[in-house]
Design a protein that fits this description.
- It is found in: Golgi apparatus membrane.
- InterPro entries: Glyco_trans_29, GT29-like_sf.
- The protein is an alpha/beta fold and 427 residues long.
- It has 2 domains: 66 residues, no CATH class; 333 residues, Alpha-Beta Complex (sialyltransferase cstii, chain A).
- It has a 7-stranded parallel sheet.
- A hairpin with a 5-residue loop joins β1 and β2.
Amino acid sequence: MPNVLGEKDGSDAFNFKISRFWPHLAIPNSCSVKHALPMKRSIRPLFGFLLVVVFVATLGCRTIVRRGLLSIELESRVLVHVPTPPLLNATLLKYAAVDIGEEKTKQEIQQLLDGNFGSQARHRTFVSWRRFIHHDITDKDSRRLPTTIRSPLFYRYWLDFRKVLNDWARKKRFQPGIMSDLTRLLKIPIDRHNGLVGSNHRRYSSCAVVGNSGILLNRDYGELIDSHEAVIRLNNARVEKFQKKVGSKTSISFVNSNILHLCARRAECYCHPYGANVPIVMYICQPAHFLDYTVCNSSHKAPLLVTDPRFDVLCGRIVKYYSLKRFVEETGKALEEWSSAHDGALFHYSSGMQAVMLALGICDRVSIFGFGKSASARHHYHTNQKAELHLHDYEAEYAFYHDLVDGHRAIPFLSDKFKIPPVVLYH
């Protein structure tokens, strides 16, 4: 009977298929009910194997999920600990953007372009231009050639003066992207003078900006300063007898136009304490100083470059922001009272501040030396001067330098596209 049922049920055919593909699970035709147990034992290894596979897969999934969650947690922790630059004060930005002396400067420029030199006091500021009325110019043959106000030479200088002053006044506006153009505007002309034609837009690998503070006499930084690719010095500060303290190398002489105004009194506008081949970069303190620039530029062997007025405006706004911030925090007074405390229209950044800004634009690394003061130190290491000029806010500028060193603080008015290089301040 079982065999008949088996045939009817197709068990033989089923068993044949099993024996063909899985012979260890095949059931003999003659098996009875007693032999049913061995079949169950033979299935257990397969179920056991499947359970192991499921268990391993579960552990793998749990591990992947845990790692994913852990990585997300770590990323979130990293994001939390990344210092975010503090927001700039909108009110301070608004006040810092106002140039109190702008209208007065425009009027002065227009008077100069019209040939109106104003009062006798104004005439006394043009000491260098006495050469055109009272001084003689000697040619190679030692013949005395008087240069009067009616001479062709004076007329040529006058046309050049009007052109450079007009171009400078036309570009005098706020443009934060000017920082990215400093290499093209200043470094490339200097490279050409030094015979480095193929330098393109490569920045200096390292720059040392050497200030004139008396604190330089407390350290022997000379060798370290000279190890930089470029060394920027300020306002013709002497290095003779101070080489151990301040070094001897000079790549760029950075001066304000008052320095050139004094140099213009000398024969051939001599203004080269570091050598006649050292380039001079100058910012204009007074529009009238373009008279000195026009005369002296023709006699200089090395480039005599004037900073772009857009760069000047940017520096002025940055320093004013820090000065306003310091004034409010330390005095608790209203912003409107800042002007009377800082000579208003006469307020200006220092030569050192703009030299640091220049280095930020043309150098991959910036080192700052000789910035700061001490009660026991001179104001300048090479003079006996102790007092500071009230038209500068040195404390505000020091706060700016420390923000540069910090590297995580937002600098007002700088373009987001400009990347500030690493800065080190040596005390």
